[in-house]
Amino acid sequence: xxxxxxxxxxxxxxxxxxxxxxxxxxxxxxxxxxxxxxxxxxxxxxxxxxxxxxxxxxxxxxxxxxxxxxxxxxxxxxxxxxxxxxxxxxxxxxxxxxxxxxxxxxxxxxxxxxxxxxxxxxxxxxxxxxxxxxxxxxxxxxxxxxxxxxxxxxxxxxxxxxxxxxxxxxxxxxxxxxxxxxxxxxxxxxxxxxxxxxxxxxxxxxxxxxxxxxxxxxxxxxxxxxxxxxxxxxxxxx
Length: 238
What we know:
alpha/beta, Rossmann fold, 9 helices, single chain, 42% helix
């Protein structure tokens, strides 16, 4: 929200795109959200570009959203989506390593994530009881078994490993970035192991910025504001 305020103050048009089932949208689609639903996000970006055809389009993402903007950069068709800049704060790089970090890191993150996830799944059950009540999705108890349960019942992936490989960006996934991309990582991030950036494909369009501190998408000052993050984006976009 701070970044949106800073961008609008400098004359940018800002569009915030929610994932499926996010922003209290559970009733709009029968299928549940999962992290490999990339195509619909590319279509959403194409729609924004059609609405604002004269404006250069840049993408900024945080956490899983940061992972999505990387994949949109790598997988979109440049003839349909013309990107100016992509900025990615604390993206999920290796899905498996991030899951391990969540499982073994501070309980606060794990409990908060599970609380929010179960809320979404309960609303999904209420919206589509004929599809989900019997599956008992809202009774998911932990991240790994819960994600595996979701993969087995609500996706076409063979298993959890195949699913997580589907949205990881390590290896050669970022071989063909269509435009310049900036990844910002914090070494004290309890969710994203920063060392995974060494496993990213080498690309002249990719720049990684490492910060000693920042936590997971924090980068806050003593007033709990984020002027550095806001200015970093403004400098790159202008």
